[in-house]
Write the structure tokens for this entry.
Amino acid sequence: MPDATQNKRPLSPHLTIYRPQLTSVTSILTRITGNALLLGGLLVVAWFLAAATSADAFAVIDGLMTSWLGDIVMTLSLWALWYHALAGVRHLIWDSGRGLDLPVAEKLGWGVIVGSVVLTLITIAII
């Protein structure tokens, strides 16, 4: 039987109470990009498997990969790769005990965001 005094305790704050902070948003985005990279990787694996299977299977998957939808998915996957890599570097910096104060942490967050966009554009220009 539940304790009657338990109902009088304050509830934990909910996410709607807090204003999103750059460090929390970039942390959540790191998790999202990590999962998205798995999906993009599976699509590339399907492309390779289709190439190894038959010309008809490859034509179907290659048609998807070279369509406008495939271009969007691969471009977003490229951005996710750069974002996730830069976020990993940021965490390595934090693991060394540096950059943990708020102004530096926010600069690193903006560096990850801007850097990932710039590196994506540079990669697209090179390819």
Remarks:
- Residues 26-126 form a domain with the 3 helical TM bundles of succinate and fumarate reductases fold (CATH 1.20.1300.10).
- The longest helix spans residues 22-53.
- The chain has one domain: 26-126.
- The CA atoms of residues 90 and 108 lie 7 Å apart.
